[in-house]
Amino acid sequence: MSKKLVIKVTAGADAPERCSQAFTVAAVAVASGVEVSLWLTGESSWFALPGRAAEFELPHAAPLPELLDALLAGGTVTLCTQCAARRGIGQADVLDGVRIAGAQVFVSEVMADGAQALVY
Fold first, then answer.
1. Distance from C-alpha of 87 to C-alpha of 80, rounded to nearest angstrom
2. pLDDT tens digit string along 35-91?
3. How far apart are CA 81 and CA 116, in angstroms?
4. Range of the domain at 76
């Protein structure tokens, strides 16, 4: 049975430690060979845009752009449809490799056999 880790991160610059924890756990899981799906919701939605991760700073934390690059290379990164719409973000605006999808896709990922979900 394959294991999948689905992580929903709601925090951004408004809660930097929680945000960093979500990205760090996701990137470590990818590096460990786990199938990872990271969902950007709420204030983390902004990190789907080019250059936004580089603006994030948290002392003693791995650089967010490096974590995001690892996730884009080895996992799935999804921007919440409603969160994108509320912020005026369209598919043409986001980083290559980021998809925009809604609750139906999230629920199907979480309910898949072997999936585990975390919310930050």
1. 11
2. 999 999 999 999 999 999 999 999 999 999 999 999 999 999 999 999 999 999 999
3. 22
4. 4-119
pTM of the shown model:
0.95
Instruction: Kindly state the tokens that stand for 101.
Output: 């999808």
Distance from CA of residue 58 to its chain's centroid?
Answer: 17
- In 3-state terms, what secondary structure has residue 85? helix
How far, in Å, CA of 76 to CA of 15, rounded? 23
Q: How far is CA 91 from the centre of its chain?
A: 15
CA angle (11, 69, 107) in 5-degree steps? 50
One-letter amino acid identity for 72? L
Q: What is the CATH number of the domain that holds 78?
A: 3.40.1260.10
Evaluate the CA torsion angle 64, 69, 74, 78 in order and state its sign: positive
